[in-house]
Automatic annotation (TrEMBL), chain A:
Transmembrane regions listed in the UniProt entry: 25-46
Biased composition (Basic and acidic residues): 135-196
Any one of the GO BP annotations: transmembrane transport
Coarse class of the protein's main subcellular location: membrane
Biased composition (Polar residues): 204-213
GO CC, any one term: membrane
Keywords noted in UniProt: Membrane, Transmembrane, Transmembrane helix
NCBIfam families tied to this protein: tonB_Cterm (TIGR01352)
Record's subcellular location: Membrane
All residue ranges annotated as the TonB C-terminal domain in the record: 233-323
Name listed for the protein in its UniProt record: Protein TolA
Organism: Desulfobacter hydrogenophilus
TrEMBL record, chain B:
Intracellular or extracellular location(s): Cell membrane; Membrane
Name of the protein: Protein TolQ
Organism annotation: Desulfobacter hydrogenophilus
Primary subcellular site in the record, as a coarse category: membrane
One Pfam family recorded for the sequence: MotA_ExbB
Gene: tolQ
Keyword field: Cell cycle, Cell division, Cell inner membrane, Cell membrane, Membrane, Protein transport, Transmembrane, Transmembrane helix, Transport
Lineage of origin: Bacteria, Pseudomonadati, Thermodesulfobacteriota, Desulfobacteria, Desulfobacterales
Length: 323, 234
């Protein structure tokens, strides 16, 4: 009797425990799962939740302007909003253009064996830039005054560049496949030079304003290199110049890899870019913006090959790369 | 500067397999812990409400039998349940005594002992039911941040590997990967915070209920003792 009642007691306890047991628990788990799904779906549709914190406006400050020494350029032109197209690139000096001046692509970058010349460092960059600004102020057609401390080196460099250019010509006619490899090597060299340049600029207390800038200084703007160079080579140079200035991350553009924005530009004889306009927009603001900025940063490009007075072309940017 | 902002979902779908696995694990934790929170909250709330009501009713009743009939209607209250268990045990022994038609102090002592043991056992059962799933909340609250952190560390590791391969360390290359990795930590915290809050809340409530059970069982024992001795004297 007693044992039986105890067993009944046990059973009743067990059944009571099971009344809030596995079955109901799984039901509630299902409800919870549905709630989570709803939460994520609402996240997907509520675009307010996405990282839309108000972004402060970026002000690009050319620190070179604040370097000690006489500065001829008016300071009002030292501040500019990125993305705001400067109306007259040839006459007025925009800080972007100034800071980008040393980052023009040069033929030595296309060498197969990267030769790093630490002597052609940025130690003279601010000085050089001041000269440059002054020169630009005086005469509208921009010409770099030769640097006092490295004239011999520059002449040597020019000879080298000529030789290399001729080699390069032969190569491009023979094999186009090496292009990518060379580009990679150029990038490697650029990275090394950038590091050196940043160290040097830190030592000088002058800092570049953009992360991609501060490449090798003392480029001659392709002036001596323009002799009888074909258009294809020039296009390659442009492509690499703009690609180096293109800051873009495809993770930020969204899922669509087939987006393409086409930008029409006109290049003057001096290498200045005029008439930047969208031929077709991709619909993705981030891609459009980054492409336009890349073109503006690459300005001015090296001079056109001789015999050409202006050159019009369309650049196609897509998350896969630059056309 | 109008950059098209990236949704969390896109980030998750673009993450690596390890980060994905960790996010799924955290999602599982979140689902389970929320369902536990839901179940326990309802259970504890009804237990509290009905127990308060039952004590009120119990002290108004004149006889134990009366209270027993009231308690049967309030089966969701742990107090009512231990009362039912104790009353049934007491009535059983009393019935036996009535059948034997002998009343002595020894049998009353035996009755008291059995009722006491029954009460203890009922309280144990109630406690077990109260703390049944709560320990998982503690587990989730303690481990979820670390799981998320693991995902973040892993994601940043692979991001840096990517930087090393591409050779460019510009902010545009580094930042999205790191923010993607940080989503794991955010998810871990999002799972852990409610779990910890709920765990502490339930612990507190369970402690209160437990003390109520103990004090009620003492009261009940006193009442039954008095009742039995009255019957013995009568």
């Amino acid at each position: 009797m007693n044992i039986r009642s105890q067993i009944q007691n046990r059973r009743s306890v067990a059944s009571e425990l099971q009344s809030t047991g596995p079955g109901r628990f799984f039901l509630v788990c299902l409800v919870s799962l549905i709630c989570h799904a709803l939460f994520f779906i609402s996240l997907y549709f509520l675009h307010d939740f996405q990282f839309s914190a108000p972004k402060p406006k970026v002000i690009t400050v050319d620190l070179v302007a604040f370097a000690p020494g006489p500065v001829n350029a008016p300071t009002s032109e030292k501040l500019s909003m990125p993305g705001e197209p400067t109306p007259d690139k040839a006459d007025s000096v925009s800080p972007d253009a100034v800071s980008q001046r040393p980052s023009q692509p040069t033929e030595p970058k296309k060498a197969e064996i990267p030769i790093i010349k630490p002597e052609v460092s940025l130690k003279s960059k601010p000085h050089n830039l001041k000269n440059l600004i002054a020169a630009r102020e005086k005469e509208p057609p921009p010409k770099k005054p030769p640097k006092e401390n490295s004239v011999e080196k520059k002449s040597k460099q020019e000879e080298k560049t000529k030789k290399k250019l001729e080699q390069e010509l032969a190569k491009t006619k023979k094999e186009q496949a090496q292009k990518s490899e060379e580009h990679r090597q150029a990038q490697l060299k650029n990275a090394l030079e950038r590091m050196k340049a940043s160290v040097a600029s830190k030592e000088n207390g002058a800092q570049g304003t953009n992360p991609n800038g501060n490449k090798v200084a003392g480029a001659t703007g392709g002036g001596g290199a323009g002799e009888a160079s074909p258009l294809t080579l020039y296009q390659m140079i442009i492509k690499s110049a703009i690609e180096q200035n293109w800051i873009f991350n495809d993770a930020m553009a969204g899922l669509d890899q087939d987006l393409e924005v086409r930008i029409f530009i006109k290049i003057l004889k001096s290498g200045d870019i005029r008439d930047i306009s969208f031929e077709t927009r991709s619909g993705n603001n981030y891609l459009d913006d980054s492409a336009k900025k890349a073109v503006q940063r690459a300005n001015p490009l090296p001079e056109l090959p001789k015999g050409m007075f202006s050159y019009e072309l369309v650049l196609g940017f897509s998350p896969r790369g630059l056309k | 500067m109008t950059t098209e902002s990236v949704g969390l979902l896109y980030m998750l779908t673009n993450a690596g397999p390890v980060v994905k696995f960790i996010m799924l694990l955290l999602l599982f934790f979140s689902i389970i812990s929320w369902s536990i929170i839901f179940i326990k909250f309802r259970y504890v709330r009804t237990a509290f409400r009905d127990s308060a009501y039952f004590t009120e009713v119990f002290w108004q009743c004149r006889t134990l039998a009366d209270a027993f009939s009231k308690a049967k209607a309030l089966r969701s209250s742990p107090l009512a349940r231990i009362f039912i268990a104790a009353y049934m045990e007491a009535s059983r022994t009393e019935n036996k005594e009535n059948l034997a038609a002998k009343k002595n102090a020894g049998s009353t002592l035996q009755t008291m002992g059995s009722v006491n043991r029954t009460l203890n056992r009922a309280i144990n059962v109630e406690n077990r039911r109260l703390v049944q799933l709560v320990s998982f909340l503690a587990t989730a609250g303690n481990t979820a941040p670390f799981i998320g952190l693991f995902g973040t560390v892993w994601g940043i590791m692979s991001t840096f590997q990517g930087i090393g391969l591409s050779g460019s360390a510009s902010l545009a290359v580094v930042a999205p990967g790191i923010s993607e990795a940080l989503v794991a930590t955010a998810a871990g915290l999002a799972v852990a915070i409610p779990s910890v809050i709920a765990y502490n809340y339930f612990n507190d409530r369970i402690r209160v209920l437990n003390s109520e059970l103990q004090s009620f069982s003492s009261d009940l024992l006193n009442i039954i003792e008095r009742d039995v001795f009255k019957k013995l004297e009568a």
